[in-house]
């Protein structure tokens, strides 16, 4: 396997820190969908992931899967000898270790979204006119 220079990535990590780096990686709206679909399954074909993702374009789903494979969160398995070629995806051990954290973040969001919505309404409300 060819060696890849990851020094630019390490340099980025030094600047922003590992938390910011992983948040940037998982903040794509389709990451949660992919994790939901792959959690509790052995693996799913690309076609099945696309059908179940409801709304993700093929381009966006491919980019999301490519990034998750790059980061070691998802494993890709091409099926040799099939026509057409099929590719299967599953969560890696590293990806499975992130599921509980994502579930906790989802629960927090579900429990606090009304408060966030209220804060946003207050923030964007027109200012009261000043009396002279």
TrEMBL record:
Pfam families: HxlR. Residues 17-117 form the HTH hxlR-type domain. The keyword Cell membrane does not apply. SUPFAM superfamilies: Winged helix' DNA-binding domain. Keywords: DNA-binding, Transcription, Transcription regulation. The keyword Hydrolase does not apply. PROSITE patterns: HTH_HXLR. It comes from Mycobacterium vicinigordonae. This is Helix-turn-helix transcriptional regulator.
